[in-house]
Amino acid sequence: MNAIPMQQPAMETLTLCPVCRQKTRLTVELCPHCGAERQFGPTKREVLTGTGLGMLAAPSISTLLLPVSIWTGVFMVAGALGGFFVAHSRHGGDRWLKRA
Q1: Residue pLDDT, tens place only, 39-89
Q2: Which long-range contacts (CB under 8 A, 24 or more apart) does 48-54 make?
Q3: Which of 36, 1, 42 has its CA nearest to residue 15?
Q4: pTM over cut 0.85
């Protein structure tokens, strides 16, 4: 019996992995060659970093302008929310991250 040759996918369904430049399917979430993973949105680390920096930076700037008061806490909450939204807008798209 003749072995049936394995069909190759159509070229329209192939793309190159941005990390290792090997051919992968267009819909793949994990590169079979290098292990890079498609990430949608920020990672937990990026969210925590953005929130923490906002929570520290806004009250620090406010204490230069105003003495420490209840407004310092308000600026801390506003900075945390701002850092959270900046992290989500900065890393809002999809991207490929190499697994460690």
Answers
A1: 888 989 999 999 999 999 999 999 998 899 899 999 999 999 999 999 999
A2: 49/87, 50/83, 50/84, 50/86, 50/87, 50/90, 51/80, 51/83, 51/84, 51/87, 52/80, 52/83, 53/83, 54/79, 54/80, 54/81, 54/82, 54/83, 54/84, 54/86
A3: 36
A4: no
List strand residue ranges (DSSP E) for the chain, in order: 14-16, 23-25, 37-40, 94-97
Whats the size of the chain, residue-wise? 100
**Residue from 6, 5, 31, 4 nearest 16 by CA:** 31
Q: Which residue type occupies 32?
A: P
Helix (H, G, I), strand (E, B) or coil at 58: helix
